[in-house]
Amino acid sequence: MTYQDPEKKVLHQGHLNPYFEHDYHAPAQTIVYDPDPETPTSFQSSLPETPLETRHFGPAPSGCILRRRKTKRRVQTTNGNFVIDLDIPTQLVLPRHGEPETMKTRYTAVTGDPDNFEKNGFFLRQNISGRRTDFLSTMHGVMRNIAHLCTRKNSQTWGPNAWEKVVVCIVADGRHKIHPRVLDCLTLLGVYQPGPMTSSFDKKDVTAHLFEYTTTFGLDSNLHFKYPDKGIVPTQIMFLLKEKNQKKINSHRWFFNAFGPLLQPNVCVLLDVGTRPGNNSIYRLWKAFDVNSNVGGACGEIATYKGKNWSLLVNPLVAAQNFEYKISTILDKTTESMFGYLSVLPGAFSAYRYIALQNDEKGQGPLASYFKGEVLHGRDTDIFTSNISNRLQRILCFELVAKANSSWVLKYVKGAIGETDVPEALPEFISQRRRWLNGSFFAATYAIAHVGQIMRSGHSSIRKAMLMVETVYNIINLIFSWFSIYMMASMTVACFLISTGNRPQTTKWKYKLIAIVLSILMIYLIFASCCRHIWLSVFFISFIVGFLTAHIPVYLLSSILAFDPWHMITSFLPYMLLSPTYINVLNIYAFSNLDDISWGTKQDSVVIPDLQAVVQDSQKGVDVELETPDDTTIYEDALMNLKTQAKNDI
């Protein structure tokens, strides 16, 4: 432990024990398997409180203290870039020894834009080993799925060495945004080492920090180590730590435009942090692409996290969302999958065929339309464009199906479950749905306005006819979404707003629109008055009641046919009681805040001190300060942090 004050260092010298005994040396043989390696422990004893007054030292520093015991190392540049292989911490658990990719962590200081990643001379470990990649995915529970792929011994694609065909890519949106406990977990896995991180290289700002490592063990949600004897297999991990917070679309651009051209994957699986896939969910998604070569995108079921013993269903808001998610999957997703076009593939858990997303020779295609939202978001754009940028997954789905001279379809895969947390408080719920409703409304308008692209696609005549039927269905949904707010009340409020501070001569068309709408309402009232005596008949009242309650047996029957009826028992009543909130509060708040294009969940950025700068000399080499393996304590610090901090902080 290092103390900046010499007097305090002398005072505590007698209370310090050796931190760890660094007696590990990698054996010389090729591969050695240790079925039950010892879990690392820390022998540091707690320090007694200092008898000195602390007012002379100032307040306790926030975060980790920068260590000064570093050594300068001469590093040759690779293709003019700063790339260095780091020794792993000596205390790192190694169930499999002797493999080079498990003994070194590769760090790359990435400069420039993700679209120019390959052009600027950057490369990945998989390019050196020449491995064929079938997956790229963000990481949360993926190791169990990789282990499942390795058990498919009779598969022509998978098998005992299936892990070599899988690359897990973790993209952190901002160095100052990532939670410190996440970095602690990645440190224990051997992926993250902050020593060589730089703020600039050769007078060029570093935009991202890339770490590459193959870990041979895992950590579960309870922070317990999982070794090969528990079914864990080696996992190739790429950890990209972006220097700035640039939102989700930019992270996807790194994913597809920077790494994709180098790895040439077959299927890309996208997972949001917090989504927990089932043990074989990723395999089920991949199987949908393997069986049907026309599948360009697929998704599974997004299930709500119910807590231990379904305890969270006691919250009516969570129960209502559980019912909503289930019914949306059983009715909407299955019906849309039959037509071949899902209106949205959830960003939390979905998969795409890489070649289906590629642009044509003119630079037009699904990815071009998708990443256009990164440029438009936050600029002085109109309300329509600004709100579309919040739901670009819908634009990506439409552009994929309507791709010129192609016949890609989207598919729902039953059994591929991804469990995610849902808002438990009403304010967060309203903010989330504001973004969803506004983005979905304008994205649906975009799809309807560009329906002509479907006719120029490569689909068969029957498929085009089915897609046109689905477009009519979407138009009906769009009309109901807009006019679900009570029309008479809206016109009354509009009259008050227009009449305040405006002369009729300057707002002619507004008053004319209100007059037309009120005339339509008057026609309806006259018709209703004439038919009043029919409405009072017993038969018609029974018909109306039956019509209003007809959706209940539809929900029940569809749930039974899907062999998933439990939400009807646990969540139907809260959903019915909160239905007025869904219809009134959410829609009114959403359409009243069309000018709000924020995500609603992001917090303001916090600036932290810059890292060291590295300058290249004429000999194509750089001098970089590195913490020596014997002096560094980052691994032990990470272990202690995870032991002392609450698991909910991760």
Automatic annotation (TrEMBL):
Please state what class of enzyme this protein is.
transferase
User: Where are the compositionally biased (Polar residues) regions?
Assistant: 39-48
The UniProt annotation puts the region (Disordered) at 37-61
Q: Which GO terms describe its cellular component?
A: cell septum; plasma membrane
Give an example GO biological process.
Answer: cell wall organization
Q: Where in the cell is it found?
A: Cell membrane; Membrane
Q: Which residue ranges run through the membrane? A: 436-455, 475-499, 511-528, 534-557, 569-591
Reactions it catalyzes: [(1->4)-N-acetyl-beta-D-glucosaminyl](n) + UDP-N-acetyl-alpha-D-glucosamine = [(1->4)-N-acetyl-beta-D-glucosaminyl](n+1) + UDP + H(+)
Q: How does it sit in the membrane?
A: Multi-pass membrane protein
On whether Transmembrane helix is a keyword of this UniProt record, the answer is yes
Q: Superkingdom of the source?
A: Eukaryota
Question: Where does it primarily localize?
Answer: membrane
**Could you say which EC number(s) this protein's record lists?**
2.4.1.16
Keywords, A to Z, come to:
Cell membrane, Cell wall biogenesis/degradation, Glycosyltransferase, Membrane, Transferase, Transmembrane, Transmembrane helix
Annotated GO molecular function terms are: chitin synthase activity
Family per record: Belongs to the chitin synthase family.
Explain the purpose of this protein: Polymerizes chitin, a structural polymer of the cell wall and septum, by transferring the sugar moiety of UDP-GlcNAc to the non-reducing end of the growing chitin polymer.
Give the protein name, as stated in the record.
Chitin synthase
Q: What is the lineage of its organism?
A: Eukaryota, Fungi, Dikarya, Basidiomycota, Agaricomycotina
